[in-house]
Amino acid sequence: MKKWFGKEIKIALSVLASILILYVGINYLKGINVMKPANYYYVQFTNVAGLAQSAPVMIDGYKVGLVQEILYDYDTNGSIKVLLNLDKKLKIPVDSKAFLETDMLGTASIVIKLNPHVSEYYEHGAVLKGEVNAGLMQNIQGELLPQVALLMPKLDSILTGLQALVNDPALSASVKRIDHITANLENSSVQLSQLMKNDLPVILDNVEGITAQVNNFSDTLNSLPLQSTMKSVQETSYNLEQLTNRLNSPDNTMGLLLNDRKLYDKANGVLGSVDSLMIDLRLHPKRYVHFSLF
Question: In which band, very low, low, confident or very high, does the pLDDT at 37 lie, cut at 50, 70 and 90?
Fold first, then answer.
C-alpha cells in the first residue's frame, strides 16, 4: 500500500484535484454549471458585435442558458457560430429563431423565439437560424444621427441669430428699462405697503364710523311715523286734487271767476275805465275838485 500511495501519487492527485476545482470554478464564474446536464445548440450570425461569452440566452424574458463559446467559421469565411449552453429540459421546436439583441448600453444577448406551430424539435447540437435585431444604439446611429447632422447647419444659423440678438444694443436698453420698471414697481410696492400699514386703519375707522352713522340714520328712519306721514300726504294730495277740480268747475264762485270769459272781459273793461278816469283826473283835476275859500 505504501508503494501505491507514495509522495508522487499524492502530488499527482492533488494536481488533478486542483485542475478539476479550477475548471469547475472558471465555468462557475462564467455561469456554467458543469454538474448540471445541458443541451448544446449552435447559432450562425454574420455579425456578433457586443456579444461575449457567458452572455445570457433568454426566452420570453427568462434566462434559459448562456453563450458558452463564439467560433469563427473559417470554412464559410463570413459566418460566426455561437455555441449555446441551454437547460437540459428545454426543447427547441423546428424553425425557431435566435435573435441577437443589443441594449442601450451596448450589451448583447441571445433571444430565442420558439415556433409554437410544430411538434418536431431540433436534435442536440443542431444549428438554429440567427438574425440580428437593430438595437437602440444602432437605431440612433442609423436614423437619428443623420437627422441631427441635417439639423446642425440650422442650429448654427439659429445660434448666430441668437448671438446677434444678444449683442444688439436695443436688447441692453430694453433690459435697462425693465430694470428701471422693476425698481419703480418695487418702490410702488413699498409705498403701497406703507399706505396699507398707516392709512388703511384710519380709512377703516372712518368707514366704520360712516357705517355706524348710516345704521343710526336707518334706525331713525325706522322710528319715524312713515305710515301716518304718508297718509297725511295722501290726504293733502286728495284735498289739492278736489280744490283743483272745484277751481276748474263753473258751478262755484271761484270757478266762475276763473272760467267765465264775459266776467273777465267786463272786469278788464272796468279796469280800463278806471285807468282812463285816473289819467283824466291827473290832467284835469279842476273838473272834479272845487276849492272855495269864502
Answer: very low
